[in-house]
Amino acid sequence: MQLTLEKGSPKDYSDRLDKEQRCYALLDELNLSYWRCDHPDANANTMQDCLEIDGILEAVVCKNLFLCNRQHTQFYLLMMPGDKVFKTKELSGQLGCARLSFAEPEYMEELLDITPGSVSVLGLMNDKENKVQLIVDEDVLKGEFVGCHPCINTSSLKLYTQDIFGPLLKAMHHDMIKVQLVGE
User: Fold this and answer.
1) Spatial distance between the Cα atoms of 65 and 82, rounded to a whole number of angstroms
2) What is the 8-class DSSP label of residue 23?
3) What gap in Å lies between CA 150 and CA 114, rounded to an integer?
4) Pick from 12, 47, 79, 134: CA 20 to 30 A from residue 100's CA?
5) Quick check: 171 and 30 in contact, CB under 8 A?
6) 45-48 — which CB contacts under 8 Å span 24+ positions?
7) DSSP designation for 86
8) d(CA 149, CA 157)
9) Running DSSP on this structure, what letter comes out for residue 20?
10) Using the 8-state DSSP alphabet, how is residue 61 labeled?
11) Phi-psi region of 183 (alpha: psi -120 to 50; beta: other; left: phi over 0)
12) What stretch of H or E contains 2?
């Protein structure tokens, strides 16, 4: 399958899930520029699978990790460059949390309306009660563009970094905590 990059939302929404359509509606409402690459979900399940998509997007494509504390009372969405190694202890130390682990898929669906393999900053639009704290590795902020999913892993988006961490976060009523992860 030949992957292509197209500007803006799809022309035909008939085969798109409601949560994906809501992502495009929000981006369009905010007048943000973005580009879309549609692909089979098998092409975006792992970071390795994303390499071809990365080449088309020419953006920082992040690992998006959905984490929680031991009591399942605090939830975090971590955005970090895909080539960095995640070390729980390193992040826990910077956040002042005793222990972080990967949150169960049920929490992803309940809080962000997403499933494993589709985790994205855009899921925060579904977190109306602000139960999920966004954590961003400083290296994500250095690139001009960031790649992410529109809450489903059959498409990948390319957005300006300044748009994600400016008007988009503001519209989703979230802020971020910046961290410095070395992965060692």
Assistant:
1) 11
2) H
3) 10
4) 47
5) yes
6) 45/117, 45/153, 47/82
7) P
8) 6
9) H
10) E
11) left
12) none
d(CA 80, CA 179): 9
Concatenated DSSP letters for 102-171?
A: EPPHHHHHHHHS--TT---GGGGGG-TT--EEEEEEGGGGGSSEEEE-SSSTTEEEEEEHHHIIIIIHHH
| Amino acid found at 15 | D
Q: Which residue has the tokens 């809080």?
A: 111
69 versus 99: the higher-pLDDT residue is 69
Report the mean per-residue pLDDT for the chain. Answer: 89
The label of the residue with tokens 């992957």 reads 3
If you average pLDDT over residues 111-138, what whole number do you get? 95
Residue 148 pairs with which residues in a beta bridge? 157
What pLDDT score does 42 carry?
A: 54
Containing 56, the helix (H) or strand (E) segment is helix 51-57
Q: 60-69 and 145-148 as β-strands: parallel, antiparallel, unpaired?
A: parallel
Which tokens is 140 given? 């994500």
- pLDDT category, 170, cuts 50, 70, 90? very high
The pTM assigned to this predicted structure is: 0.91
